[in-house]
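Supplementary notes for students who missed Thursday's class. We covered one full example, reproduced here. Read the sequence, then the structure, then the short commentary at the end.
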Amino acid sequence: MPVQGQRIVVVGASGSLGSAIADRLIQAGAVVEGTSSTSTNAERIPAGVSERHVLDLEDLQSVREASAAILRSGEPLDGIVIASGIVAFGTIAATPAEVADQLMQVNHLGPASFIAQLLPSLTESSTAGRSPFVASICGVVAERAFPQMAAYVASKTAHSTWLKVLRMEVRRPAVRVIDARPGHTETGLAGRAVFGQAPAMPTGMDPAHVADVIVAAIEGDATDLPSSAFES
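Structure (token representation):
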């Protein structure tokens, strides 16, 4: 599906991976709107976006306000990319319940609510003969469990499973759902853990490479991007 002229929202466009995806979509001719969790971070969203929105996935009121702002133009939405999230490290016994709740809210419940509120606009795009999509980055942790990351793994696995159900429910109307599960990527996320400290990790993938694979999938016909799809 060529993205030329398509209206696409990139959630987390101020981050290293989200900004790379937004840049590539803009270069391909898409009309991109970007979100960041704060107005300060919005300054890091690529200059080529058509609109900037503040979207704090931890705050359901912010989710509702951002969704309303995106719908306000009245123009159908052709795509949503979820390229945001938080991480924590620690054993199951050591991880506080409030940290696990925060991970579930930011990595699954917030994005799920955002997508759900925008589904009518994606449906309108499909009815108009376009090819709308939802692409969400769940990561390799949605395929394999890792020690001292249970809360993070649970949040991403929950979202990946939710996407499977979404895919079944939006076959009619035709809205494509893409679950992207790249391995460790050098986005700096591990160094910004909301709890605990990251273990020693091998050098991760280049965000530019991951962005290239995801945008190629959006422009193609993929519905699933397992970790193997990102191997060089």
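Commentary. The CA atoms of residues 214 and 225 lie 8 Å apart. Helices lie at 16-27, 60-71, 97-127, 150-169, 207-219. If anything here is unclear, bring it to office hours.
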